[in-house]
Amino acid sequence: MAQEQAINRIVELLSRSNNTVVVTGAGISTEAGIPDFRGEKGIYRTLGERYVLGILNIDTFRREPDTFYEFYRQYFMFPPVEPSPAHFMLAKMEKMGLIKAVVTQNIDNLHQKAGNKRVVAVHGNAERFICTGCGTRFKSQYVVEFPELIPTCDKCEQILKPDVVLFGEHIQNYLDARDLITGAKLLVVIGSSLTVYPLAGFVKEFSTFYQDLVIINKGPTQLDHAAAVKLNTDSTGEVLEEIVRRVELHRR
Ligand code: NAD
Asked: Can you spell out the DSSP letters for 44-69?
């Protein structure tokens, strides 16, 4: 389907649906300056997936916190970036009543920063750290400024853990995410290859029962065959801006 046609179809589906949920992955944040894992600059390509999985897991965090934090500080303490136009468009779409919620695999806090009110983050939020001893929460700035490699709590001196889901841990907000996705009338996936479970499984479950799956992504995803519309783009911002522009025209 040509881009023009695809956008028209998405506008039509959005106007018809009263229960639209958006699912986002790392691809929505690359335009904001945060690389995805699988893309050209992603750490799966530059370092190798096995290497990354070997460090970014709960066992390494517990047994070798120094190895964990050396890696985490280098690759996951995101520099302060602003949301991309795509993030801002999703916030606008929520305000316009076009979308009900955003379910995201991202940990960069950019949907919240752009102004979306209903954000279900399944892999946590890199802006936060939690004390493994007393549960006190800290902002990432505390860790950035901490004088040692391994940050510890200023109350009980136990090690802090990033509030992100490491390999080997359960996702957060499992039921909310599953209910929103499988209960949606229209599902719009943006910037995800749909290879990371269980979220990809929820989308697959949705696609088994409903037709209205829209995928906006650069390159293939695991569920292209099930999508009513698949739009290939490397600028999700431009696509969403155009969609919003046409909905607004439609409403006049
Ligand atoms: P993924 O790497 O599986 O897929 C990202 C997809 O986005 C790819 O198909 C890629 O081609 C596409 N993409 C990249 N740039 C794009 C652009 N400008 N426009 C449109 N599409 C673009 O990502 P994923 O499915 O989110 O899974 C990776 C895991 O890594 C996630 O679980 C996530 O938690 C984590 N992660 C998060 C961040 C973040 O918070 N920003 C960044 C990297 C990885």
From this structure: HHHT-HHHHHHHSBHHHHHH-HHHHH
**Is any atom of ligand 1 closer than 6 Å to the C-beta of 83?**
no
Instruction: Record the tokens describing residue 30, joined without a space.
Output: 């690359």
Q: Residue 164 is encoded by which pair of tokens?
A: 């992100």
Probe target for ligand 1 pocket from 29, 34, 36, 102, with the most ligand atoms within 8 Å of CB: 36
The answer, yes or no, to whether any atom of ligand 1 lies below 6 A from the CB of 84, is: no
Rounded distance, CA 90 to CA 87, Å? Answer: 5
What is the rounded CA–CA span in Å between residue 143 and residue 249?
Answer: 47
Q: What is the per-residue pLDDT for 109? A: 95
Mean pLDDT by 10 residues, the chain (252 residues): 90 95 97 89 89 96 98 88 97 97 96 98 96 97 97 97 96 97 97 94 91 94 96 96 93 78
Hunting for tokens 């050396």 — which residue is that? 70
Q: What is the pLDDT of residue 133?
A: 97
Question: Rounded distance, CA 60 to CA 66, Å?
Answer: 9
Say how many Å lie between the CA of residue 58 and the centre of ligand 1.
21
pLDDT at 79: 79
